[in-house]
């Protein structure tokens, strides 16, 4: 059964309500008109990674807890639309939700509803072992059920990746993920010294590759002890929303990895996919396709 799935994505299924605001931080006012509308759509970090992987032709399986509610129905419909296998277990507290405020420049601020979970939430061990054993790679989101899955995943020996998002390098919640994964993605947004944090992850954990994305400034790539800068890719259209850019980067990087590419080429793929994601309006879940990614990867860097 090994290899029936290219990437198993764990956790991170949910629904976002996206609101375009006149600026961030949002100044205090009794009310604001929202001329662009308020949209609720399926797609949180695990969903976007899965969509990105599937768009690149990888056999993708997503596992999470999901509510029996309208938001859960949106998530299920998203996976059907993109041909992604979805295995879910009941979440009585309801499907994960968030509100994303998006500024005119595409930057966003997310407000997460932490009530959509229960103490002790976890994936059934037998299912987790079976799906991991059938996968070439496992990508974990940093939700509590995934934290509790780490011991089982380590026993399977399947290569792991995770995204620490805007970790500040100090919050202890992120450390088990940072030190258990073979590939670690994170944002440099909250890091005063990205290189220092990246090297600490590599020294204390299993990661042979650490990537810190830095938006329009590109990314930092640490592999085999060597730090390099990855230039940002030029967006193919105007930037409208940065939601999902980091997830797109991770998906394209993993595509390169599973295709046998070097870490530098994988990061180049990630930069292209992240730039593409910034041009996609918040109401759509759309990722760069394989042909477009490979074509752009062979164009001269601008």
TrEMBL record:
Keywords on record: Kinase, Transferase
Residue ranges annotated for the Carbohydrate kinase PfkB domain, each copy included: 182-281
Presence of the UniProt keyword Kinase in the record: yes
Molecular function as annotated in GO: kinase activity
The record ties this protein, via Pfam families, to:
PfkB
Q: What SUPFAM superfamilies does this protein's entry cite?
A: Ribokinase-like (SSF53613)
Q: Does the keyword Ribonucleoprotein apply?
A: no
The name this protein carries in UniProt is Adenosine kinase
């Amino acid at each position: 059964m090994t290899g029936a799935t290219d990437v198993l994505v764990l956790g991170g299924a949910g629904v976002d309500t996206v609101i375009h605001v006149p600026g961030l931080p949002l100044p205090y006012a009794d009310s604001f008109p929202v001329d662009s509308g308020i949209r609720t759509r399926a797609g949180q970090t695990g969903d976007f990674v899965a969509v990105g992987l599937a768009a690149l032709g990888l056999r993708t399986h997503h596992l999470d807890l999901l509510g029996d509610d309208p938001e859960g129905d949106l998530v299920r419909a998203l996976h059907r639309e993109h041909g992604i296998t979805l295995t879910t277990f009941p979440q009585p507290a309801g499907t994960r939700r968030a509100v994303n405020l998006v500024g005119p420049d595409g930057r966003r601020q997310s407000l997460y509803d932490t009530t959509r979970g229960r103490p002790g939430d976890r994936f059934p061990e037998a299912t987790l072992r079976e799906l991991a054993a059938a996968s070439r790679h496992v990508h974990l989101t940093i939700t509590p059920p995934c934290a509790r899955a780490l011991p089982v995943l380590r026993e399977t020996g399947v290569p792991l990746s995770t995204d620490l998002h805007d970790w500040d390098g100090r919050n202890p919640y992120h450390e088990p993920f940072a030190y258990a994964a073979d590939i670690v993605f994170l944002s440099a947004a909250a890091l005063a010294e990205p290189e220092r944090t990246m090297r600490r992850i590599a020294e204390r954990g299993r990661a042979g590759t650490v990537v810190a994305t830095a938006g329009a400034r590109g990314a930092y790539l640490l592999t085999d002890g060597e730090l390099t800068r990855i230039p940002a890719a030029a967006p193919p259209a105007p930037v409208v929303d940065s939601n999902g850019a980091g997830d797109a980067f991770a998906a394209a990087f993993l595509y390169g990895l599973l295709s046998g590419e070097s870490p530098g080429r994988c990061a180049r793929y990630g930069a292209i996919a992240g730039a593409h994601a910034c041009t996609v309006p918040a109401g759509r879940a759309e990722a760069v396709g394989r042909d477009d990614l490979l074509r752009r990867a062979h164009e001269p860097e601008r």
